[in-house]
Amino acid sequence: MTRKKQIILGAYLGGVNNQTLWGLPESGSQIEFSSFEHTAKTAERGKFDFFFLAEGLALRERGGKIFDQDIIGRPDTFTVLASLAAVTEHLGLAGTINATFNEPYELARQFASLDHLSGGRAAWNIVTSFDAFTGQNFRRGGFLPRSQRYERAAESLALVRELWDSWAEGEVLADKASGQFVRSGDVGAFEHTGPQFDVRGRFTVPRSPQGQPVILQAGVSEQGRDFAAASSDAIFSPFTHLPEAQAYYTDIRRRAVAAGRQPDDVKLLPGGAFVLGDTDQEAQDKARWVRDQQVSPQSARVLLETVWNVDLSDFDPDGPLPTFEPAVDAPPFIEGRARLESDLQAWAGRLRAVQAEKKLTAREVVVDQFTRTEFVGTPERVAGQLDDFVQGGGSDGFIIGSHLVPTGLDEFVDKVVPLLQERGSLRADYEGSTLRDNLGLPVPERRRVREPASV
Fold first, then answer.
1. Average pLDDT over residues 59-69
2. Phi and psi, residue 248, nearest 5°
3. Angle (nearest 5°) at CA 123 between 122 and 125
4. Which of 118, 146, 267, 329 lies at a CB distance of 3.0 to 4.6 Å from 234, suitable for a disulfide?
């Protein structure tokens, strides 16, 4: 019998925005280590492939003042993941780190160290930024022009991989007499000259247990798709409706082959939220309640302010959408929140079309368009939805999160995971020792590094 395609599962800790119901009494801290530990251990109990940590580099602002809709605080990614390496054994540890504001040598060293500490479980979600607001924390002038962000990211990733490959097998010898390690002459030597970086020296960390940490990316634009298909091991897909997801899946695999790779060398993973109930109706009622909690009147105003780009403090969210056009040329009213659309007028037009078609209030439009609970129903129904999506060519798995931190994932692991295992779509136990093993990814061949004449 042919083995069913195995579902890849990642777990994420809910963000610091309205999607997380941080005001509920049962909600825990998003800063204390116990929350990260609980989520990671729950994911490992459910045989998830990895734990995913997003990144917030600046506190969001609304009209020049700190958001009062967000939880404030985001600990350093590497510190959290290194701590989780000590309390887990098999779970991959994926961190979002910005290539625009970090230097390749430092990135390579940090991820290589994490890979050694965890026994081969590190992953880098590489992102870019052209946001001057965030960039103020990092560099004079704030940011790179949009046209240069992929150029820097591509060269940064290439250089990081050069550094990871700078140590070859057998180049480190143990001196038994002294008990010290002795490096051969060329170990770690590198030299790189390019448009963004000119660096040379010796890398300080040996080649990691999985050859190279896993690379995660997201790419929707033409440039982003080409970059991700050519250089990433897994891609965060934005599509959760099967026809769109199938088209994206096919397109990325085609681009991977065009870049000289095998189609299975790239895994596609959309995000997925869930709501469970003992009956489908109970789950639907609960999902409606969750969405209403996620979009309070104030949250609705803030989300609409990202579209209209003006202060909507006096706007009634239980009435119609604003009739005036967005302030396209004004400075951003909301800082630190990524815009889902670049054409604000077109975005507003689509929201008005939804309002007219479904006869909704402004707040109901926000609930309809800005929230996501893709998988709703009994555990049996949700397990079937996930399995059918993957087996139907929509993705290779999902990044699963919950509206409740840190215990929301428990329900999924206790009720849905056993059903996926019964279907033969999810492992009963870990089969490999590294994240690459468990994801079914090849170990990258070591490429020859350009070495300097002398260091």
1. 77
2. -65, -45
3. 155
4. 267
